[in-house]
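User: Predict the full complex structure for these chains.
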Amino acid sequence: MESLQREIADSAVFDDEFDFDPTAVQSPADSSQQQLTAPASDTDSDGSAPSDAPLAAGVDQAFLDERAISAVVVLQAGEVVERTHAVTELSIPYIPGLLAFREGDPIVAALETLDCEPDLLCFDGSGRIHYRQAGLATHLGVVFDTPSVGIAKNLLCGTPRESVDGRPAGWRTPIAADDAVDCADGTLIGHAYQSRQYESSGRHINPLYVSPGHRVAAETTVDFVAALCNGYKLPEPTRLADSYADEVKSKLL
DNA sequence: GCGACAG
DNA sequence: ATCTTGTCGC
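Assistant: Here is the predicted structure of the three-chain assembly.
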């Protein structure tokens, strides 16, 4: 399996290689943060999404015994245009570094039921931030040869350039490859991104660890995630896929 | 041998 | 990931 991951990493493209307009990737009318650009009036007067805006799909799983519920929610300019899911039997246990082999088939099953063809796939888990630079997001991005990004809540490997504790919303810092990563030390493999943060004292929210999946550069990956976040810790596509998976799961009980 | 380790 | 009440804060 490890050798297959190295082959996947070789086939992966960690640079921008997509058709759509990167500045058109976004969630609805951004409520809070984001220090990005001017208020582009790309939205049609009737409030519907521009038919040419890129399709961003969020993919996430919920589990029930030895079954996986893989959910996919596709957004276009912040609006849901399609939702699908698949329930599959699991055969492989969770092993750090081999997550794609456990959740890969369920995800493929769910994506195959999709009517549209997403321009960008957002996965829960790492992409290039992986021992062999072939995390879940990279693995599936290559399989479908579709631009993809990895969004993880915890760091698998690599070293943040700065301490990540208690940072303000919008903050980001590079994640460099270290001894645990199969590439030159110091290589930029992703970023820690503070998508949300509490105003005053008390506890603080941990950052997101985002990395290129396939056909997207590290810097662009953070820009996409930042543009897809809308007040919550998780970007909209992922957040919706997450709750949809839970919804399907509860109806399954 | 010990520690580290996405979901 | 999942099992789960209350609790603190915006």
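The beta strands of chain A are 55-64, 67-76, 79-89, 120-124, 148-152, 159-160, 172-176, 188-193, 208-214.
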